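Hey, why these numbers?
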Amino acid sequence: MQAFFQFLAANPFILLFLTVGLAVWLGRKSIAGYGLGMVASAIIIGCGLAVWASVYGVTLALDNFAKSLFYYLFMYGVGLRVGPSFVNSLGGDGIKFTFLAIVSCVIGLAIVVLGARILELPPGAAGGMLAGSQTMSAAIGSAEQAVTAGVVRLPEGTTAEQVTAMIALSYGITYIWGTVGIILITKYLPAWWGIDAKAAARAYEKEHGVASGDSPALSGWTPGALRAYRLENTAWVGRTMRELLRENPEYRFANLVRDGAALGAAQEEPLRLGDVIALGGRREAMTEKMGLIGPEVSDRLALDIPLDQAEVLITNKEMLQKTRDEWRALPGADQVQVQKIERGGVPVPIGSNTTLQRMDVVTIVGLKDAVDRIGQTFGRVVRPSVATDLFTLSFGMILGFLIGAISFPAFGASIGLGNAGGLLVSGVIVSSLSSRLRFFGNTPTAARNVLEDLGLVVFVAIVGINAGNSLLAQLTGVLALKIFLVGFVACSVPPVIVWAIGYHVFRINPAVLMGGVAGARSHSGPCREAAVEIQSNVPWIGFPVGYAVSGVLLTVFGYFAMLLAQ
């Protein structure tokens, strides 16, 4: 094994991607539905390899420049993702969920800082406990930033490497309950309050027209229909389709076939007996006037009309806050079907009073010209593209570093967002600008996901490898127990307080509030489990706003945990 570890030490890139690959493999494993995920696995694998190598006298270490680069890319990607939802949280009902997220994050930070001070935990423990107990791996990076920026006073004889190792150690000890605990707490909070969350969800679904969670993902029923009819009603012979549509506005003219030739949507063409007319509209309308034209026929030529599926990015402010019923009243809306809405990267259940927010992504399918028309009405149609505006990426990164360089005196030191916080803010700014300037900043979702996923897992893997060299020297049973207890309290207390405020003060529907609690911890797992538990999509309604706000706050709070705990 010594030769193997010497080989890894001499080939750092192989070491890095071996760690990443093993982390992804381990992260996919689960027990009773619970797993570590690739990020927590990366730090465990990295530490494990480094400790194992140290037994043979081999030191594994990776370049800090690479570690910082991948972390900065990750932070910028997070800003791009949460930016629109973070801005939208400042208005309407989003204020309630914003408040709940702030409460959760501040209480979690306070518990970690007080615990570190009272139990006299070593430097670095506070940052790691915050990241692990709140399951916000990005906080590891901001905690390290506090060390590299010099705002954390290191005790005599303590090195920066030892502090970094303690951050990683504390994260690993608190992460498991941080993940499992918030899932269990979110699932059973309603029962502890004596509330039937499933009944609350059904009531919400009925009142707001939200599809139930046990509805099939694929259904044979669609709200729109396209049918073909052979003209046999002599009352319409010699008249035009424009006249027919004027008297029957619930229909949309799609195609006209005569003598085996498709004439398209020729509204001024006089109709003849035997013409095959393709009409579209609401399914109910297609059955209300049976026989208006003649019998329905299965004519492939008439129905062979191009359909389209596209994602529409909501940018038109005139469409914001419109409900689903108001969308349907728009011209051409009955020729398309809304399949899903995503907000901040997470799905939003569609109800009768669901309103749109800037930078929502709406997936629609229907007649091609109707899709284009509706897309232009709501914002812009986003076609699949592998192109990324690298100029915008470069501009955003530079802007982030400039913002991070701003500092001011506080707590006896020079305080600022640092590079990581600056890039987070920069991503928010760029994503907000791109919703208003259509020519600006094309960053496909797949490209952004690479920035986030690869950036974070590589960063954490390097942290784990570099921390493993001094891990054994710092780890004791008493220290591990203290760290676990603080993390346990920091994980368990905030969601209970958030639930009490949301239910008793804001009067939020319990099913919606379950998603709000998960969002306040910026963790999709509890919301997903809550939706399964009560068999409803309703929890996802309360999730996006808190998810965006807490994602930003907890990331930045890693820095302040280190600062306040010293």
In short: Residues 1-60 form one domain. The mean pLDDT is 81. The first helix runs from residue 2 to 10.
